[in-house]
Amino acid sequence: MKHSNWLCAGISALSLIGSAAAQEASPDDPIMFVVDGSNSMWGQMDGIAKIELTKSAFADMLPKLDASRPAGLVMYGHRQTGSCEDIELVSAPATKNRSQLTASVNGLSPRGKTPITAALKTAADALPDGGNGTIVLLSDGIETCKADPCAMAQALKEKNIEFTVHVIGVDLRKPADKAALACIADRTGGTFTDIETADSLSDALKDTTSAEGKTDLIQPLRYELRAIDGMEGPVIADARFEILSAADKQVIASQIEDGYDFLPGDYEIIARSGERSGTLETRILKDDETRTITIVIDAALPEASLSFTPSVPAASVLSIAWEGPNGEGDYIELLDAEGQRLEESYFVYTADGAPSLLRVPGDAGAYSLRYVYASLNAPLVTEPLTVTPALASLTLSADAEVGAFVDISWEGPAGEGDMIGIFPAGTPVSERNPLNYERVAKGNPVRVQMPGTEGDYETRYLTGNDMTVLAAAPIRLIPAQGAINAPESAALGEAITIDLTGRFNPDQDYVTIVPVGAGASAYQEYAYTDGSAPVILRTPIETGDFEIRIVREAGDQNQVLFSKPIAITPSVATLSAPATIAAGGTLNVVANGPVSREGDDDVYIAITGPDEGAGSYSGGYEYVITAGETIAITVPDEPGSYELRYIANGYQPTILARQPLTIQ
């Protein structure tokens, strides 16, 4: 057998690696995270955008990563649309950069392509000692920049035996795509984790960070190569084969006569006999059982046809009638104007039935549909498709109060995951992170909560498949209108009546009393209100300068709508009771001061040990309903020194008055 020699040396080197496989990574093993920021990360799993699941998983994992373990981060596809050079080295491995890594992942706004190969090289170059360490790659798609990440992974492993790549594939729908990412892990002794549900991503990320690479690597697989004359023809004995990388068409081996040792990956194989030739693109899997690859020369391919509306609105669902062989794995896919696969994979298997339903992209433009005969990876028919601007609109009021819920009427495709979100005015359409949003599936109109800061904003209809903006409408947020009427001062523990004017929502607006200058999220005792009736609150547990506030929970932040100062003065409550009483007797107590609010048991007389906390009532208690009334309370049977307390229970129990009590 004749072939070129450059790849064989690499294969031989890998085959000599030892067989020990560790179970858990060393706590000081440098680790680089490579995070997918490509546009397809806006796709959803279980109704949640994959990018949001990724942010949540990292926020959960990073604080638990061993503090002594150096960690770094590379992100790609997050700054430019359509660029294969959009790769950012956020940080080389370090131990004091956790907040930087978390903030960078949280700031991801997917935009572009998937240059996995170059991102792996960037991450490996950041590892110490020529690539000694671990890379964790998280991606929802395969390489889209005409490069071969499997070949890069192999080259990096050959350079440093201590180099490993673990791969987390997120929502990879095609088995072939899973295999393409698994190949990266296979060639470096790493693990491949296939994520198919939203709740499994966080656990997978934590588990992967503790996994150690195997030195027992995937070995080359021997395949017989043969060529046949036509689909059902005889074997061509004099055929010679050339093997290329499917990604970049680089020749790996040539003039092969009968067989070849393949590592898992994507290949293009050309068979030649005289002046005739045939080509096959194939994917080698590590668990292949069939070890024969057949290339057809002068193949007579099956016939197929596609029938569909040639021009449809963006983000709509296209019905495709088709005829074809419906072979195992056959599919219909959408391509861009240049015949290239889109960043987000748009396809449907023919086995799912006819007609096939396929949601088209949110971007208008020229596309094409093709039927792919999977057994030969051969397109059987390609037809043009024009995607026109979407038929979508939004109708809403021109202004609204900060933090208010606004009803928005909409027209649009109503596809799975479509939403209406709100952005600051002037936000680029490439920014896909709304301040607040609601799914259109909730109804029409849909109710969306506005942010808590006044100013100019824009509501947008966003598609659920690729977060394209189909329609937009402005809205101005204005200060809330209203006022607070309440006393200027009140005694500690007193219940005060607060009258309100204005429009309020009892699901988001509440009244509370807090110290002057406290943050917008601060609260003590509180009550939600619609403003139609007074609110009665018990004063705070200490004296000083406070303010009554109406606070609106506004989604992204709390907004103080109105406030009014109030001075909290010392308690004027008094207790009158004997200082000594026989064990088990009845103590008559007169309490002057605050009483329980109607329908509430929040003021009481208690007997307790002198050193117990303010909320204790270990020796018994009775409620105070009417000021100045005589309250009879049974004392404990155990003689000793106790304390009689007058307690108001608001945000926390407050002792308004106390006196010693001896039980004999």
TrEMBL record:
Pfam families: VWA_2
Keywords: Signal
Keyword Oxidoreductase on entry: no
InterPro entries noted in UniProt: CLCR, VWF_A, vWFA_dom_sf
Record's protein name: VWA domain-containing protein
Source organism (scientific name): Ponticaulis profundi
Keyword Signal: yes
Alphabetized PANTHER family for the sequence: CALCIUM-ACTIVATED CHLORIDE CHANNEL REGULATOR, VWFA DOMAIN-CONTAINING PROTEIN
Source organism phylogeny: Bacteria, Pseudomonadati, Pseudomonadota, Alphaproteobacteria, Hyphomonadales
Domain of life, source organism: Bacteria
Domain (VWFA): residue spans on this chain: 30-221
Annotated signal peptide: 1-22
